[in-house]
Design a protein that fits this description.
Layout (H helix, E strand, L loop, with lengths): L1 E4 L7 H17 L16 E6 L5 E2 L5 E2 L3 H11 E7 L3 H11 L7 E4 L1
Parallel strand pairs: 2-5, 5-6
Antiparallel strand pairs: 1-2, 3-4
Amino acid sequence: MYLLQRGLNSTNFEEKLLRSEMMLCWKYLRIPPNPYLPVNPRTDQITLVLDLEGTLVCTQGGCLARPKLREFLTVLHQKFEMVVFATSPKLEADSVLEKLDIAQFFRYRLYR
């Protein structure tokens, strides 16, 4: 799981420190902040990127959802902007996500 902070108003020291460290990394890597996602309208929300294969579903011997996955996603959906990343082809990942994301937990879907 990867956490991305997007558009947060820095009100305390930890957030300011994290923001400065992230900007320093982007400066040296020459990667613009969040190039693949539009700006989150909720500035107090953190974006959580979850990997489809291996984290949400087990792909060994078929495609199986992890135990208690729906409860896990329900709790996270209340606190985070959720994005899913899939390494499999778009058609294959979308067929899995159609069954998995019935409640529209994920705001965006990213593919390799």
